[in-house]
Specification:
The structure is a homodimer. Chain A is of the alpha+beta class and about 90 residues long. Chain A has a single domain, classed as 2-Layer Sandwich (Mth169, Chain: A). Chain A is built from 2 helices and 3 strands, in the order βαβαβ. In chain A, strands 2-1-3 form a 3-stranded antiparallel sheet. The radius of gyration of chain A is 16 Å and the shape is elongated. The C terminus of chain A is likely disordered. Chains A and B meet through strand 1, helix 1, strand 2, helix 2 and strand 3 of A and strand 1, helix 1, strand 2, helix 2 and strand 3 of B. Chains A, B: Part of the FGAM synthase complex composed of 1 PurL, 1 PurQ and 2 PurS subunits.
Chain lengths: ~90, ~90
């Protein structure tokens, strides 16, 4: 069943200490070619009927994202749980 | 510049209290047609050169996901910051 995916990321001008911590840990893993890491949230919303993008956008705006420091995108995605870890 | 996106979600059999809290709040917003909400993480990795999926998979496995309770997917994505909030 298709679901709506909401991606919430910090705005580009907002510092992301969590992502920076990961980026700083990478050289210790032998990874030297990463320029930046940013960490946000991915929210999967399943509707009882047809996926409703406008409704999802309203939910994201009111409940999932802080519009002062975060941007979000909303999209419909086919079910792809079978692809996990691929 | 293309970036690698790692999506980390709790395995389907693991309870997601954070997502459930959002789902339970929805009727108060007048939204009654949502079956479930699950909340995970979205990590954007920018490489200095070409995006490297194998490298990203290694980073996700060692640093970003807990393979006991979480699944992750890795993919290359074109830059789409201009689409924010659309």
């Amino acid at each position: 069943m298709p679901r709506v995916v909401v991606d919430v990321m910090l705005k580009p001008e907002i510092l992301d200490p969590q992502g920076q911590a990961v980026a700083n840990a990478l050289p210790r893993l032998g990874v030297g070619d990463v320029a930046s890491v940013r960490i946000g949230r991915r929210i999967e919303i399943e509707f009882t009927g047809e996926p409703d993008l406008d409704r999802a956008r309203e939910i994201a705006d009111k409940l999932l994202a802080n519009p002062v420091i975060e941007d979000f995108t909303v999209r419909v995605e086919a079910d792809e749980t079978a692809d996990a870890n691929s």
